[in-house]
């Protein structure tokens, strides 16, 4: 299920992200009601077009938080649901005209951003994106690969409990993450586990670097985005996209009870955000982190930055 069909991480996966997400609902309310753009201004010269920028993943790395925050910027226009175009052969066969129709209206002076987290993980996506626009700007959100794996498992477990997908039986409903990530017979790493595979960032990033220069891809530290004031990472995104500075520390406050930052004028993201990680057997954590460590080093070299994961 890693690279075929309609991956789990698209429109369905966003349902739980959007449930109770007051921030995302309020940020686009004016546009949905036909009052103008997301700030109620007339859409002079606006229209539908191809995006200027893609948020490509990684899944459960912080992409929903990023696009929700970016939607507040007056010079940025963002999509709502994930479009799932370049990774989904059925959608891709509908052509660019269909893709454009999925975009919100934007003005020429605004940067249009589309987010589909699964783009990062699917082999054929970079080539298709390059065919559309070789100069497109790309945002990649990554976080500690062990924590991402656990978050991905928890998400799939919640998703599977309330959704039926024809032809696919979710192992997350039957097994613990320890049982999936380790071989039951030997106790060694189960290299076939999809959740672990998605945390091998160097494989996916290397595929993107075959088609796009490093300077065309900006990497957002999802751990910092979640644990520190988001304005620090958002300021770097503004510089990368070439838009005026808009975000500052006062846009956000830390909810001490929830343990993460919220939007000052709107509130916190949905109830599915900010899950506390469970306590694991230290030996399990050690095995997985030891397995991922050499791959993390390869990714550091590709990215040109040491993320200092354990």
TrEMBL record:
- Keyword check for Signal: no
Residues of the region (Disordered) are: 1-43
Binding of 3'-phosphoadenylyl sulfate occurs at 60-64, 143, 151, 261
SUPFAM superfamilies, per this entry?
A: P-loop containing nucleoside triphosphate hydrolases
**Pfam families xrefs:** Sulfotransfer_1 (PF00685)
The transmembrane residues are none
Q: Which residue numbers delimit the Sulfotransferase domain?
A: 51-244
Q: List the disulfide bonds.
A: 262-268
Question: What are the record keywords, sorted?
Answer: Disulfide bond, Glycoprotein, Transferase
Compositionally biased intervals (Acidic residues): 11-21
GO terms of molecular function: [heparan sulfate]-glucosamine 3-sulfotransferase activity
Query: Which residue positions are annotated as catalytic?
Result: 60
Instruction: Look up and give the organism this protein is from.
Output: Capitella teleta
Tell me which InterPro entries the record gives.
NST/OST (IPR037359), P-loop_NTPase (IPR027417), Sulfotransferase_dom (IPR000863)
Specify the domain of life of the species encoding this protein: Eukaryota
| Keyword Thylakoid recorded | no
Name of protein:
Sulfotransferase domain-containing protein
């Amino acid at each position: 299920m890693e690279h075929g069909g309609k991956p789990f991480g698209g429109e369905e996966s966003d349902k739980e992200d959007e449930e109770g997400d007051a921030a995302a609902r309020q940020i686009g309310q004016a546009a949905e009601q036909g009052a103008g753009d997301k700030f109620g201004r007339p859409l002079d010269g606006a229209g539908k077009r191809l995006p200027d920028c893609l948020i490509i993943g990684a899944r459960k790395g912080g992409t929903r938080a990023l696009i929700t925050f970016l939607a507040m910027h007056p010079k940025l226009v963002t999509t709502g649901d994930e479009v799932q175009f370049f990774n989904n052969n059925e959608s891709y066969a509908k052509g660019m005209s269909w893709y454009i129709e999925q975009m919100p209206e934007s003005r020429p002076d605004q940067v249009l951003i589309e987010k589909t987290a699964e783009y990062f993980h699917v082999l054929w996506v970079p080539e298709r994106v390059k065919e559309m626009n070789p100069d497109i700007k790309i945002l990649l959100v990554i976080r500690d690969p062990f924590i991402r794996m656990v978050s991905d498992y928890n998400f799939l477990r919640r998703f599977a409990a309330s959704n039926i997908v024809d032809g696919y039986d979710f192992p997350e409903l039957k097994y613990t993450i320890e049982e999936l990530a380790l071989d039951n017979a030997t106790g060694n790493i189960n290299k076939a586990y999809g959740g672990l595979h998605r945390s091998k960032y160097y494989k996916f990033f290397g595929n993107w670097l075959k088609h796009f220069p490093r300077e065309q891809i900006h990497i957002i530290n999802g751990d910092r985005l979640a644990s520190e004031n988001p304005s620090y990472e958002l300021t770097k995104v503004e510089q990368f996209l070439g838009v005026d500075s808009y975000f500052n520390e006062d846009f956000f406050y830390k909810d001490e009870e929830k343990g993460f930052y919220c939007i000052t004028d709107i509130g916190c993201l949905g109830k599915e955000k900010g899950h506390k990680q469970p306590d694991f057997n230290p030996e399990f954590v050690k095995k997985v982190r030891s397995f991922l460590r050499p791959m993390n080093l390869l990714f550091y070299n590709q990215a040109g930055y040491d993320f200092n994961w354990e």
